[in-house]
Amino acid sequence: MITNKRGFASDNNSGVHPSILNSMVDVNNGHTVAYGDDHYTQEAVRLFRKEFGEHAEVFFVFIGSAANVLGIKAATQPYNAVICPDTAHINVDECGAPERFSGCKLLTVSCPDGKLTIDLVKKHMHGFGFQHHSQPKLISISQATELGTLYTVDEIRALSNFAHQNNMYLHMDGARIANAAAAMGLNFKDFTTDAGVDLLSFGGTKNGMMYGEAVVFLRPELAEDFMYTRKQGLQLASKMRYISAQFITYLTGNQWKTTAEHANRMAKLLAKEVSSIPQIKITQPVEVNGVFAIVPPHIIEKLQEQYFFYMWDEAQSEVRWMTSWDTTEDDIYNFVKTIKTLL
Known about the structure:
By secondary structure, the protein is of the alpha/beta class.
């Protein structure tokens, strides 16, 4: 595996933004109360409430999978079911953790563009009150989706209304929520709280943070016992100030927006450059920081020797290229030059 070299495999592979690192150094002085009772955590929560509304309940955890799993667990019973796209991170990339730790069954739907619709959800809207069936309780969407596409505010609101009409909740996996907000030109609240989302995972790791995610409950009653769920889920950080300090910097002065806009812009540039190569076909709209493309199979291995990236659909020879907050224009131009040379 290539190391210490920029590639296009994942925005998780990028380093930590200097301002985020500095924020951790700044709080690394003296002692403070542990387990989130420090003033740094209180300030970070205040900033989250400024973004999502004063009623929001916010809990910090280490990783995105934990945010998803524990959030789902808080909103469901083990006999419930979660409806999600078949490409959802909770279905594909969390090693069965949502099902193991929540007890819920995942009911998946094929979504060519990664986006659920009411018509697609209706496939699983049956068996209510029938003791032999898992009871649908949660609709889970990702914003941005795993295919780099975006739900509009109206699409999210339609799903939340449908969920509430059927005594269900709407969950949002926001691992790349900053990229979504930057691309849409909206505040976080516009397409979460105001669109009827009940709970979400708020990610920062893919956008310049070292580690740390947040479970944000926009329906406060779902958070009633969450402090115990987080502790049992092994996600209560003792030195929480190092997560909180990152979020303070991240949410202050639009740090999140600056890094997300750059990553999105680099993806647009990459898409523009590879679009001029006849042998490459872009398969999804490039709305955030991911480019999905079908590439001639005979160059993929040689290209991966110089730039690390993942196959998305090997049968289709489809790859995924992700850009990051630290991707440069030279990275793009050199990558495209290498593709042309190999072809």
